[in-house]
Predict the structure of Aldo/keto reductase.
Amino acid sequence: MDYITLNNGVKMPVLGYGVYQVTPEECERCVLDAISIGYRSIDTAQAYGNEEGVGRAITKCGISRSELFITTKVWISNAGYEKAKESIEESLQKLQSEYIDLLLIHQPFNDYYGTYRAMEEAYKAGKVKAIGVSNFYPDRFIDLSHFAGIKPAVNQVEGHVFQQQKTAHEVIKKHDARMMSWGPFAEGKNDFFQNPVLAEVGARYGKTVAQVALRFLIQQGIVVIPKSTHKERMMENFDVFDFVLSEEDMSRIEALDTGESLFFSHQDPQTVEWFMSILD
């Protein structure tokens, strides 16, 4: 496993296991499978509804808590200082842990400044080892980074070969933070797993399209959290540290970038209206 070092000195695995859309019923089993393979970083969120499954798994896995890296996120409805403070305590209870390794603001909506103050407080109290944000576009990330007392260590954003977030990545690095990719396989959109460039590159290394896509991000120092409920696929996704893509192959993959989201824009009024509607 390779690690990156966050801006406060905390070491974080560059590859983790994400549990987005993993059902509460399946989550414990999936996380135990991932840990048995060698994953030490697990990414969950309050909105996923499966923090308790993660908590059960990390208490049963037989691995020391200090060897695990657990990320969770504060949801929009828990935004603001008081609500966020309460929700952090609830997450700690569900995760059955005395601390969270990385705590993020899940979406750039509602009183995220109040949320961030609660996160800074939890950080100072030792309940959180690192704090950051998720889905913050460069403008909002710069704003928060400038005024925050504790600089965000991570910005988790959509990141894959078709949406490489080149501008966002440069801004994140400039502010001494790390980019973390959600959806590294673009959830299969654009015929991701049949992409001829990724397939051709992979064939030269004896690797799959998925492994090439993960390696492409990892070589840029981007943290990835692929998800699968199948143990054999988890193993495949983990097997990305025994090869290095050439500069030529990196350039070919860079050319796949469209510069646009395959999902939604947080700056689109209709998208924002949708987010507000699911909170009602």
